[in-house]
Specification:
It is built from no helices and 27 strands. The protein is mainly beta. The protein is flat and about 65 Å long. The two termini are about 40 Å apart.
Length: about 260
């Protein structure tokens, strides 16, 4: 089984855990929040169970959610988590429109609680090591439970979104509530052959490489280029690594996302 779900609370709430291999018939699965069994677990179908969360008094914390079926327990993943927290803390519970091209511009609707008054600011995180969160091009506070964000340019996937109100602590999304930029795509390369010792200069063309100077890597077969340099959102240069073989795929990795296989 593979668990997937998340939420906030102090226990006693009902959450939906989605995944697969929970059983084609009711096999009495048991869901866990952290190390503790849910107060009640109800099988829905092979892809979903519901859990009444256990009580928690130890303070705010994020814990993994898992499901056990016939002695097999799902693996912990960053997307399958639950956050116990204070009822007085701001929370982000859902995003509407969770993907955008690397130049941004699309509107993300952020739902949650206790976003305060007009003047809140929303931000989209960057991939690890790529710098602080990027402010939305425009943030529009709608209500205490809804904020609109015009996505900034960026790269990467599974990025948390944050709302900073004028009063009170910031709220950040977690688990499966996250934002993705489109993965890079390769459309052509400047040459389709090179010396087995490497060292050849290759220009890779495509889109989704990032609209600002971004750490990128060209990949030939399974090997990173000896040197990769970002040129633009649609171009990068690659110094080929040593290797041999025919028709090795050429791909690009940006913000942790690897372009789909494409033969050069």
């Amino acid at each position: 089984p593979r668990g997937g779900g998340g939420g906030r609370g102090g226990g006693g709430g009902r959450i939906l855990v989605q995944g697969k291999n929970f059983g084609l018939t009711d096999s009495n699965p048991v869901a866990f929040v952290g190390p503790t069994r849910c107060e009640a677990t109800s099988w829905t179908d092979d892809a979903a169970v519901t859990c009444v969360t256990p009580q928690w008094t130890a303070g705010p914390v994020v814990v993994p959610v898992s499901v056990e079926v016939y002695g097999q327990k799902s693996q912990e993943t960053p997307q399958a988590v639950f956050q116990f927290g204070s009822a007085k803390a701001a929370t982000i519970t859902a995003l509407a429109w969770t993907r955008a091209p690397t130049d941004g511009g699309f509107t993300i609707t952020i739902f949650g609680t206790l976003f305060g008054e007009a003047g809140a600011k929303a931000l989209v995180s960057r991939p690890p090591g790529a710098g602080p969160p990027a402010p939305c091009r425009r943030t529009r506070w709608v209500s205490e439970s809804k904020v609109l964000c015009t996505a900034p340019p960026g790269v990467g996937a599974h990025l948390p979104v944050t709302v900073r109100s004028k009063v009170g602590p910031a709220a950040s999304s977690f688990g499966s509530v996250s934002f993705d930029y489109d993965a890079p795509e390769v459309t052509s390369i400047s040459r389709s052959y090179g010396a087995i010792g490497g060292g050849m200069r290759l220009t890779v063309t495509g889109f989704g490489f990032g609209t600002e100077r971004t750490p990128v890597a060209g990949v030939i077969g399974d090997t990173d280029c000896t040197r990769s340099a970002w040129v633009s959102d649609s171009s990068l240069s690659c110094t080929t690594p040593p290797g041999q073989g025919k028709r090795d795929p050429v791909r690009v990795r940006v913000g942790g996302q690897l372009s789909p296989l494409r033969r050069g």
